[in-house]
């Protein structure tokens, strides 16, 4: 369907008309706008490439303010249209785009600045981590942000942010010194340790429940190259591999400059199942002993070693956009029995997906992300976050993410069956880890599926805090009712 880009405020869509009446017609893009197709295509996942009534692309905080003021008075909430918000558009289904309503696209708020005297980087919500790192590199500093350069700043930081630096500096949200945020009414406030400190804490992992954040002020640190080794290992070595991952997860805090992701994956391009370890030293120490256990495992191809800048490392991703994905995280104790079970489950998932789509049409990406318990203490020392990890200060954990991508653009018909298979696998893993006494409550929001209760997994005290802050800063429940995407505190039981 094509609509006219009518700047007189008679598009027939109440929220688009309200934006045009608020003198934002230059920022409004109806489906007839030449830019509209590229705005839809900019979404990372095919699941989220929806066609809203219109996009609005504010360029300044003041335009975000006018956008929210216009939209919050464009209807009393009874009409069945809604608003979606996107920064980098890497979020999951149902979180960042909408069919019946307006999508606020924050991609123009993408500036990165650096205040050397305060050692603080100011980062626009619509920036992507690769560009942030490249801009900060010129000042000789880095920040705790995404591992993949194409991921957006806003969603990543609002959901916590697991980074190569997490063991050293905490989740990325722990490095946010100040949030500039626009509330439902259009009022702009700053939230930090001194002003609106309840909101500051709530925003550290509390997601999109309070307003639209326009800028994040982040603690910076001196830039150093990353030393990165990537190993590809055959599935017949899974026992040694799991023991090495588990040993790494139990390393003492003195190893906090090291990070890793371990994967079991079927890659349709290579047509093989393999295990992979991406081993990172954030102080550029190629001789770190943190990964010694991996060195003894035979590899399928020679390991690759690099010493590269944070910006360069963030751009080496092989995770392409334009696929249809299904994924779920669970958190488990650092228990090799459960990790072995995950690898067994990969084998049955592979057979199931092969039967549904054929070998060429899917890839699997099951990954283990170590979460040593001392990371929780970093968050507490930096003012506290919402993730609730400080409930468990004794047991080292692993965030396990089971995900699948379907490559064919016309994979929509197969998607429900594939989704069910991934979901069923996760349920089996959850049941097994419970039976071993190794399940953990935490569901990491940034990877969470819409079917999971990420906020509820933060624990009662943090749910209460998020609820109170949402009530206080959004008393009309605009971000609960009108902006339904993402994880909403009103939906937590
Ligand atoms: C290839 C890839 C790699 C990834 N790597 C990592 C990783 O290393 N570590 C990790 O922790 N996560 C990772 N993720 C997950 C990622 O953190 C989330 O998908 C995150 O939501 C992406 O942020 P975004 O700004 O791109 O998302 P968006 O889709 O734009 O937003 C996500 C959610 O946040 C809301 N939102 C966005 N901006 C604002 C704002 N300014 N104010 C209020 N609400 C807002 C949106 O409405 C939506 O609900 C990865 C994802 C992908 C696809």
UniProtKB/TrEMBL annotation:
Q: Which GO terms describe its molecular function?
A: FAD binding; oxidoreductase activity
| Spans traversing the lipid bilayer | none
Alphabetized InterPro entries for the sequence: FAD-bd_PCMH, FAD-bd_PCMH-like_sf, FAD-bd_PCMH_sub2, FAD-linked_Oxidoreductase, Oxid_FAD_bind_N
Q: Where is the FAD-binding PCMH-type domain?
A: 48-223
Pfam families, per the entry: FAD_binding_4
PANTHER family under this entry? BINDING OXIDOREDUCTASE, PUTATIVE (AFU_ORTHOLOGUE AFUA_1G17690)-RELATED (PTHR42973), FAD-BINDING PCMH-TYPE DOMAIN-CONTAINING PROTEIN-RELATED (PTHR42973:SF53)
In Swiss-Prot or TrEMBL terms, this protein is called FAD-binding domain-containing protein
Q: Which UniProt keywords apply?
A: FAD, Flavoprotein, Oxidoreductase
Similarity comment: family membership? Belongs to the oxygen-dependent FAD-linked oxidoreductase family.
């Amino acid at each position: 369907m094509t609509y006219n880009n009518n700047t007189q405020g008679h598009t027939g869509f109440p929220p688009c008309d309200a934006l045009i009446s608020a003198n934002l017609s230059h920022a409004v893009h109806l489906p007839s706008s030449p830019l509209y197709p590229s705005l839809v295509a900019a979404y990372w996942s095919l699941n989220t490439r929806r066609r809203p009534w219109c996009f609005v692309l504010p360029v300044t905080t003041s335009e975000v303010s006018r956008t929210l003021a216009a939209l919050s008075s464009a209807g009393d909430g009874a009409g069945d249209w809604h608003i979606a918000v996107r920064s980098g558009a890497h979020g999951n289904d149902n979180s960042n785009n909408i069919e019946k309503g307006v999508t606020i696209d924050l991609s123009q708020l993408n500036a990165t600045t650096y205040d050397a005297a305060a050692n603080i980087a100011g980062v626009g919500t619509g920036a992507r981590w690769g560009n942030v790192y490249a801009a900060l590199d010129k000042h000789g500093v880095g920040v705790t942000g995404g591992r993949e350069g194409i991921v957006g700043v806003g969603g990543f930081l609002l959901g916590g942010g697991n980074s190569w630096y997490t063991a050293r500096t905490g989740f990325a949200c722990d490095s946010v010194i100040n949030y500039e945020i626009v509330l439902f009414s259009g009022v702009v406030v700053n939230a930090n340790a001194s002003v609106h400190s309840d909101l500051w804490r709530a925003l550290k992992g509390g997601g999109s429940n309070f307003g639209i954040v326009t800028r994040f002020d982040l603690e910076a640190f001196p830039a150093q190259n990353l030393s990165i080794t990537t190993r590809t290992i055959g599935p017949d070595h899974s026992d040694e591999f799991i023991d090495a991952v588990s040993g790494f997860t139990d390393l003492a805090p003195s190893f906090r400059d090291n990070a890793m992701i371990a994967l079991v994956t079927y890659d349709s391009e290579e047509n093989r199942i393999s295990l992979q370890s991406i081993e990172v030293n954030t102080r550029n120490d190629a001789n770190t002993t943190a990964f010694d256990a991996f060195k003894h495992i035979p590899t399928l191809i020679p390991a690759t070693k690099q010493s590269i800048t944070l910006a360069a490392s963030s751009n080496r991703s092989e995770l392409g956009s334009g696929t249809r994905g299904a994924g779920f995280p669970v958190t488990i104790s650092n228990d090799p029995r459960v990790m072995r079970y995950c690898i067994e489950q990969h084998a049955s998932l592979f057979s199931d997906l092969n039967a549904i789509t054929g070998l060429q049409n899917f890839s699997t990406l099951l990954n283990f992300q170590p979460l040593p318990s001392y990371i929780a203490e970093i968050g507490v020392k930096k003012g506290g976050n919402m993730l609730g990890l400080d409930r468990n200060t004794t047991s080292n954990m692993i965030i396990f993410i089971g995900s699948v991508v379907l490559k064919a653009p016309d994979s929509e018909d197969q998607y429900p069956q594939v989704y069910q298979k991934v979901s069923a696998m996760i349920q089996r893993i959850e049941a097994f880890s419970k039976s071993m006494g190794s399940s953990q409550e935490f569901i990491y929001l940034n990877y969470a599926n819409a079917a999971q209760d990420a906020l509820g997994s933060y624990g009662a005290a943090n749910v209460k805090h998020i609820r109170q802050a949402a009530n206080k800063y959004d008393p009309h429940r605009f971000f609960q009712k009108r902006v339904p995407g993402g994880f909403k505190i009103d939906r937590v039981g």
